[in-house]
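Customer escalation, tier 2.

The customer says the design service returned an amino acid string that "doesn't look like it belongs to this structure." They asked us to rerun it and document both sides in this ticket. The original structure tokens are below, unchanged.
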């Protein structure tokens, strides 16, 4: 595709899709060509946000985008090169397949699908159609995480034997009208936050091959649904603890919660409130990295040396988060190169998520073939 022509992007779903649209409105070489969202109040909100952040000219341009009630009409119209799917989770698999069949490149929100078998079908279709497929994990676009992964892959951390990853929310349940907390509709903390934390640690470790998992998925706080007027029951996991073992022998512990009767560490007042905290550590025989605290501890004959994560100057200049992810997606469309978040990795992640769920259901560890 010619570099001079802007990539025409279609945004689908204006919950999380708003953040993608904001990034697209500020990215050179990208045009918001179409938007699909049945709720018109969300569209109005988006135009206001673009005007505030990027100015009246950008908002006027965004208002020229074609509008649809449904993503299928957009995919069929031929007015976009790529679509960003920010639909409810249980629509991801079918929508990704539909768009790829229409010849449209896909950037799909996380989790890429609900089950690994669905992701295998999406991956095969993208390959058969020779189209770019990417799943959203904008948190990978972080210089500290890139630097950690590069150090791990170069052997600078020694043998990596363990990683820990947490996203702890005390009162941060994304009800989403009900589907966010319903286990039959793609809800629950494993699929929502678990994939983020699992992928963060797996990415930083250099993506070793998973072989076995053990997990507990708990639905601990369904009473929080009271007064929420949910269209479906709160019965999905809101606290999940899992362990993955890789073919290298390394292990990864992941803990994610929507709600918890706990206070943020080092919080004195004992108020639960809507707080959250993160952990992300990769431990090797030569050095360990704490990404959240920007700390590298290196083994040294004279004692441990503690310093910041060494981030090369080139990485410090990288485009980060959602903007970085969108630039990577549109570059992949232009050049045909693999995006950073590949369909193959999406499949490995979904295999880990499937196995974690099965382990909790059966009370046994589950092998990944
Ligand atoms: N990457 C991240 O950090 C991040 C953050 C939040 C949410 N997400 C993911 O984004 C997805 C959406 O989450 P959300 O919080 O925005 O949910 P949401 O329910 O708030 O938004 C979904 C939107 O899709 C619209 N929609 C439904 N059917 C449609 C159709 N056929 N065509 C077009 N639009 C349609 C709905 O009207 C709604 O506005 C989820 O899969 C979630 O996991 C990712």
């Amino acid at each position: 595709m010619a570099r001079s022509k802007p990539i025409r992007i279609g945004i689908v779903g204006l919950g999380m899709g708003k953040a993608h649209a904001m990034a697209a409105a500020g990215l050179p070489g990208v045009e918001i060509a179409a938007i699909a969202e049945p709720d018109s109040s969300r569209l109005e909100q988006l135009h206001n946000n673009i005007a505030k952040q990027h100015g009246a000219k950008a908002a006027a341009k965004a208002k020229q985008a074609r509008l649809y009630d449904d993503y299928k009409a957009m995919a069929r119209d031929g007015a976009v090169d790529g679509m960003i799917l920010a639909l409810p989770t249980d629509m991801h698999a079918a929508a990704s397949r539909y768009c790829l069949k229409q010849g449209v490149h896909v950037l799909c929100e996380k989790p890429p699908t609900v089950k690994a078998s669905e992701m295998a079908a999406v991956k095969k279709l993208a390959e058969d159609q020779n189209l770019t497929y990417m799943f959203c994990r904008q948190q990978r676009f972080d210089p500290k995480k890139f630097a950690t992964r590069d150090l791990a892959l170069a052997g600078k951390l020694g043998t990596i034997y363990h990683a820990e990853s947490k996203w702890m929310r005390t009162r941060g349940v994304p009800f989403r009208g009900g589907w966010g907390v319903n286990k039959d509709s793609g809800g629950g903390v494993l699929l929502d936050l678990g994939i983020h934390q699992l992928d963060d640690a797996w990415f930083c470790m250099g993506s070793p091959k998973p072989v076995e998992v053990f997990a507990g998925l708990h639905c601990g706080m369904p009473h929080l649904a009271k007064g929420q007027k949910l269209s479906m029951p709160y019965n999905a996991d809101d606290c999940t603890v899992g362990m993955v073992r890789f073919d290298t022998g390394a292990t990864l512990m992941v803990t994610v919660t929507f709600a918890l009767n706990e206070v943020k560490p080092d919080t004195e007042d004992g108020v639960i409130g809507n707080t959250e905290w993160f952990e992300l550590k990769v431990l090797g025989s030569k050095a360990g990295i704490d990404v959240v605290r920007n700390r590298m501890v290196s083994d040294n004959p004279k004692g441990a040396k503690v310093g910041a994560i060494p981030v090369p100057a080139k990485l410090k200049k990288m485009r980060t988060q959602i903007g970085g992810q969108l630039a990577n997606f549109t570059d992949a469309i232009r050049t045909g190169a693999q995006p950073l978040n590949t369909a193959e990795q999406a499949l490995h992640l979904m295999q880990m998520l499937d196995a974690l769920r099965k382990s909790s259901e059966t009370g046994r560890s589950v092998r990944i073939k």
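Tier 2 assessment: The sequence is consistent with the input. The mean pLDDT is 96. The domain at 142-318 is CATH 3.30.360.10 (Dihydrodipicolinate Reductase; domain 2). Sent an explanation to the customer and offered a walkthrough call.
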